[in-house]
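Re-run with default settings, no changes from the original entry. Doing this only to confirm the output is reproducible before filing.
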Amino acid sequence: MNTNFFRQIAKMDMNSKLILTIAKATESQIIASVFIQNDGCGDKAKNIIPPFNLKGTAEELDAEFFEKIRTPVETTSGLMVEMETFMKQLEEAKAQSAMEKAKADKEKKEKETKDKKYKDAMAKVEELEKEGKYREAWIKVPNATDYPEKAEELSKRKAVLSAKFEPDLFGAKEETKPEIPKTEVVTIETTDE
């Protein structure tokens, strides 16, 4: 006996398991139940796909079995592959979303740290200015290259502070003429004896 059953299955476009159950319904009728299973598909929706059932005589099933199951088998197998692809893409999207969220959180934290550092530095500048230490306050003003968005504000702050202390930023004091100490002339008288 020569059959082409497995050659017919090999011709089908499917990437899933084909589970075939055959049972006699009556003396002349046979029920063939075809169930597609894809273990690679992680979507639980695959479990609600029902088997494809055919009922007929042995002659009818021999004549039309593959013709009747080809489209449902290929469609179901394709659906499961697409479901798995979708699930993988969904997981990838979640991962990307998590990465983007982590990146945004990191950027937010860095910005908060930078803002805190800026506020602390400006508070120190205020404190030194109140103490009359204008030169030290000027030195503590943050660098505009570190805070480009506040460059104009920082420049104005330095200008205000520099106007409050001597114009020489390098610490040289204005030269004053030294006072020549007055000397007393003391005469000592000596006696010749």
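Residues 31 and 102 are 56 Å apart (CA to CA). The chain has two domains: 5-94, 111-164.
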